[in-house]
Design brief:
- By secondary structure, the protein is α+β, with helices and mostly antiparallel strands.
- The chain has helices at residues 24-34, 43-51, 105-119, 133-138, and strands at residues 13-16, 60-66, 69-77, 90-96, 124-129, 142-149, 152-160.
- Helix content is 24%, strand content 29%.
- A hairpin with a 2-residue loop joins strand 2 and strand 3 (69-77).
Length: 173
């Protein structure tokens, strides 16, 4: 029996969706299929949210690319949960295609989104998760409340972001 040669995996890159508008339909399909169709959303509304994505304000969507194909995404938005509209901004729509899970792509997307939020001057981030609490806890997120969503009980989580170096000031001395 001959062993199959191992092919080196192409590194995953994280890009702004704004720079790759040809992937808007894919992001909208993933999001609508995962969450929107269960919460009375529409594909058109979901697509419109991704069409509005920029790199310098919210919504800001990042897309993970491997071998020139999208494999995951995440969005920074000013709101994601009606019951906590006073909290902002939110990490939402973290999705990794099932064929690409368990490769660290979700963690790469989380870390990059945290960096982007910090770059934009935010001091903390929020998210809601029904089933990925452990994933976020590995990235130092803290559960701060339990809430009900259309999908069931969920953890409301928060992460305090480090101050970016360009915004740090020297202590008075």
């Amino acid at each position: 029996m001959t062993a199959k040669p191992m092919v080196a995996a192409t590194p995953v890159t994280i890009e702004y969706l704004e720079k790759l508008p040809n992937f808007i339909s894919i992001c909208a399909s993933w999001t609508f299929g995962q969450w929107g169709c269960q919460s009375n959303g529409s594909y058109e509304q979901t697509r419109g949210e991704f069409e509005a994505a920029t790199q310098n304000s919210m919504p800001l969507t990042l897309i993970a690319i491997e071998n020139a194909l999208p494999v995951g995404m995440v969005t920074l938005a000013d709101r994601d949960f009606d019951g906590k509209s006073h909290l902002t901004p939110w990490l939402k729509s973290l999705f990794v295609h099932p064929f690409h899970r368990k490769k660290g792509i979700a963690t790469l997307l989380i870390e990059r989104l945290e960096h982007e939020a910090s770059r934009l001057g935010y001091k903390s981030l929020f998210l809601i998760t029904e089933d990925a609490r452990v994933l976020y806890e590995k990235s130092s997120w803290q559960a701060i409340d339990c809430v009900q969503t259309p999908y069931g009980a969920a953890a409301l989580m928060e992460k305090t972001l480090p101050t970016p170096p360009h915004l740090r000031t020297a202590a008075p001395g």
